[in-house]
Amino acid sequence: LPARHRHGARPVDPEGAQKVGDKFLAAQEAATQGQSFTMPLTEAELNAWLQSNLASSGGAAQTGPGGQPTQEQVQSSMKDIKLHLVGDQVHAYTLFTLYGKNVTLQLTGKLQVKDGRIRLDAKEGMIGTLPIPKSTLGSAVSGLFDAPTNREKFVLPPHIADIQVQNSELLIFYKSAALR
Predict the structure, then answer these.
(1) Residue of 133, 157, 20, 162 lying closest to 83 (CA atoms)
(2) Helix (H) or strand (E) holding 55
(3) Please, is 168 exposed, middle or buried when counting C-beta atoms within 10 Å of its C-beta (0-12, 13-18, 19+)?
(4) Which of 6-10, 101-105, 118-122 is predicted with the least confidence, judged by mean pLDDT?
């Protein structure tokens, strides 16, 4: 990833979480009235919503007896996530705690919807400052999305038809209630 994407601050709209909540309500209302609906989210709104949801989920989990985290604790130890939307791609920067150490994971690629779940077709990735080799990147990202503990986290509600990044905005395409 370019150096400017590694640790730079991402825009966060202070009222973004509320704006996103209002947009979700408008989308649901349109769907119940039989209309399809496309909901755009800016990078600042998306990052504010992610921060709000991360804070409400409690952030990092504490280790159990003996200092060894359980599988669930390792999976739920995310401390921070920021997204940068560029053209039709997403640059994801996450900070999580693994065995008591802060570790960063950075992925760049295109969002996809496959079998009702969101996926990332990653083109580049790094763990800390180490690049993930392209030969293993696909299987590593698939492992993340397909892990039994993560599968449900990436399932989209049935009223969402697609999610894409276009012109540096996240677009969520809703189906009308009549089309379900």
Answers:
(1) 20
(2) helix 43-56
(3) middle
(4) 6-10
Closest by CA position to 80, among listed 103, 99, 100: 103
Beta pairing, strands 101-114 & 37-41: unpaired
- 3-state secondary structure at position 71: helix
| Structure token digits, residue 78 | 């995310």
Report d(CA 53, CA 24) in Å as an integer: 14
**Tell me, what's the pLDDT at 77?**
64
Q: Which position has the token pair 């947009």?
A: 23
Flag whether the pTM goes above 0.85.
no
Residues 27, 159: Cα–Cα separation, whole Å: 10
Q: What is the Cα–Cα distance from 150 to 155, expressed in whole angstroms?
A: 9
